[in-house]
Design a protein that fits this description.
The complex is a heterodimer of chains A (108) and B (123). Chain A has no helices and 9 strands. With 108 residues, chain A is an all-beta fold. At the A-B interface, strand 7 and strand 8 of A face strand 5 and strand 10 of B.
């Protein structure tokens, strides 16, 4: 099982805000950058956030990332139906790159 | 624009070798800043990083601890591609396998992914 724990699911109405948590430890999140990946149904993961709080070109500023201690958070504001997807955090844990357990975001 | 194209068999028999190749366009496998990764995903185990190859004046290969004893990642500069070999497979190795690039600038992040290959281990 993954060393990064995420809630299985979160949901909100269109236009609202959701946050996705990623809980780790001193061996991973606390001392490393965190990434977030979005996976739409039937597709490969896509980079959403890198170096904890930076967005690649083309990712809207509705998506944000932050970190505090051994936990990281992905925020999505102005929720849209197209945001329905699975979201994964990722970081290094020693010599291994590890992913979170994944969170399904549902737009009500 | 970087593109990654995977190829390889989708059905492998138990105890045999799983072999996949990732062809790179728009970048070089020898890029002195990038790294070339294999990741897999299954419903029971989620996303799992398997390892990576990268060139920094010489080749470096890193493997995930849980699979280190039976994996090889092999870069091929003549074909601008890299390959995955996983030995002694079992049904537990059934998964969608992805290759992905670790960006050449900044800290480690996987900025380009291939489409994925579902590999089933079954007799």
């Amino acid at each position: 099982q993954s060393v990064l724990t995420q809630p299985p699911s979160v949901s909100a109405a269109p236009g609202q805000k959701v946050t996705v948590s990623c809980s780790g430890s001193s061996s991973n999140i606390q001392h490393n950058y965190v990434c977030w990946y979005q996976q739409l149904p039937g597709t490969a993961p896509r980079l959403l956030i890198y170096e904890t709080n930076k967005r690649p070109s083309g990712i809207p500023d509705r998506f944000s990332g932050s970190k505090s201690g051994t936990s990281a958070t992905l925020g999505i504001t102005g929720l849209q139906t197209g945001d329905e997807a699975d979201y994964y955090c990722g970081t290094w844990d020693g010599a291994d790159y590890v992913f979170g357990t994944g969170t399904k975001v549902t737009v009500l | 624009q970087v593109q990654l194209q995977q190829s390889g068999p989708q059905l492998v028999q138990p105890s045999q070798i799983l072999s996949l190749t990732c062809a790179i366009s728009g970048d070089s496998v020898s890029n002195n800043g990038a790294a070339w990764n294999w990741i897999r995903q299954s419903p029971s185990r989620g996303l799992e990083w398997l390892g990576r190859a990268y060139y920094r004046s010489e080749w470096h290969i890193d493997y995930a601890s849980f699979v280190k004893s039976r994996i090889s990642i092999i870069p091929d500069t003549s074909k601008n591609q890299f390959s995955l070999q996983l030995n002694s497979v079992t049904p537990e190795d059934t998964a969608v396998y992805y290759c992905a690039r670790d960006a050449p600038v900044g800290d480690d992040y996987l900025d380009f992914w291939a489409q994925g290959t579902l590999v089933t281990v079954s007799s």
